[in-house]
């Protein structure tokens, strides 16, 4: 793929296939890549981050991280900070440096989740996927998201990310009708990510499918703001 400074690396939420970004990527019409899932079923957060970096190729890039993809983005900042132009969280979980997805959750979830992951695995029941993850979607994309949902490694939820000193441009898009991550929790993650660029979309947890054109427009505005700041 092209390695211009406009390259975007998309990091998906748990269980989602690369196709969920198709409409957004087509609307943006810039070089981009979707982070792949590592081949091993016991992949660590670092394995995910290294696979993502390999997918985007050499050169600098902007990260757009969705949901648990925020954890992977945090690890990328510890590995190749000099290559990252900006980080945009899209209803993203942002742990503190040295934290994990689980530790970023409010109480009592941070205590209950490890037990649930050990007993039930990382694929929620279909009813939970439809009611939470897929809320707001039309029937066709909802059915596809549910049928193709891929369980993740437990380590993706449990591993602690590396610390970093990256201080580049950051932004956050809050999804105001989200049943997976309530608005107040997203706002906390936005503060944790830092920066003062924040927008809101009136969608559930999958804005790239529910409002792809609006999602792409928000990404364009963030990239443009990042470019202006660097001048």
TrEMBL record:
Annotated ranges, domain AB hydrolase-1: 8-218
Gene3D superfamilies given in the database record: alpha/beta hydrolase
A single MF term (Gene Ontology): hydrolase activity
InterPro entries (alphabetical): AB_hydrolase_1, AB_hydrolase_fold, Sec-Metab_Biosynth_Hydrolase
Keywords, in A-Z order: Hydrolase
UniProt key word Hydrolase: yes
Entries under SUPFAM superfamilies matching the protein: alpha/beta-Hydrolases
Matches recorded under Pfam families: Abhydrolase_6 (PF12697)
Position of the signal peptide: none
PANTHER family: AB HYDROLASE-1 DOMAIN-CONTAINING PROTEIN-RELATED, ESTERASE_LIPASE_THIOESTERASE DOMAIN-CONTAINING PROTEIN
Record protein name field: Alpha/beta hydrolase
